[in-house]
Design brief:
Elements (H helix, E strand, L loop, with lengths): L2 H15 L6 E4 L8 E8 L2 E7 L8 H9 L6 E5 L4 E3 L4 E5 L3 H7 L1
Parallel strand pairs: 3-4, 4-6
Antiparallel strand pairs: 1-2, 2-3, 5-6
Helix pairs in contact: 1-3
Length: 107
């Protein structure tokens, strides 16, 4: 029941312990919108959106909205219980949740 919240908490702690001093997220500014991407990581001018999923499945509507609105963002990352995978046509990279520390450290 709380897998998503626990996964987000875990990823946030991993990002902080990797040296990130602040955590950011994105919400859509449209009225009555509930679109939200869990974390936005950055390195200099590179913006990296990260969505956290407690399970292996999800629609990723918010991530697609963000990537559509900001075409200069190269790719978005999804951390979940699923194995590594890529969807280059959708600009998405899927990583196991335990990779959160390494992802943040690489940025």
């Amino acid at each position: 029941m709380y897998n998503g919240a626990l996964a987000e908490q875990f990823a946030g702690q991993e990002f902080l312990s990797s040296g990130k001093d602040k955590l950011y997220y994105w919400t859509r500014e449209a009225k009555s919108s509930s679109a939200k991407v869990d974390f936005i990581l950055s390195k200099k001018i590179m913006i990296v959106p990260v969505e956290i999923k407690g399970g292996a499945a999800g629609k990723l509507r918010s991530m697609h909205l963000l990537l559509g609105k900001y075409p200069h963002i190269e790719r978005g990352y999804v951390l979940s219980t699923a194995p590594y995978g890529e969807l280059p046509e959708q600009r998405l990279v899927f990583l196991p949740l335990y990779y959160a520390f390494q992802l943040a450290g690489d940025l």
